[in-house]
Amino acid sequence: VKELAKQNINYRDLNLSSSEEVINRLTKIKGIGKWTADCYLMASLDRPDVWPENDIGLQEGVKRLKDLKERPSIEDMTSIARDWRPFRSVAANLIWADYD
Hints:
By secondary structure, the chain is mainly alpha-helical. 60% of the residues lie in helices and 0% in strands. The protein has helices spanning 2-7, 11-16, 19-26, 34-43, 56-65, 74-81, 88-99. Helix 3 crosses helix 4 and helix 5 (56-65) crosses helix 7 (88-99). 21% of the residues are buried.
């Protein structure tokens, strides 16, 4: 919380910023990585095309969905999700729901 206060984040500005800009701004805060920024984009900003390719649960879900022998790499995850644009957030939520 102290770290967020130091950053003086304007959440209205985040909502108006591109997804890339939101990720860049949030990941400058100690303790916030790309996964957290991706989840913020999906859950708080309702962005329809976010793909948290480094999420292990999502990787395991894609492994099951695509009947792969091993968990896909980040590069594979990015490639697999290309066909799901511009609704990769929806795909991620469906895969997570099935994985749980």
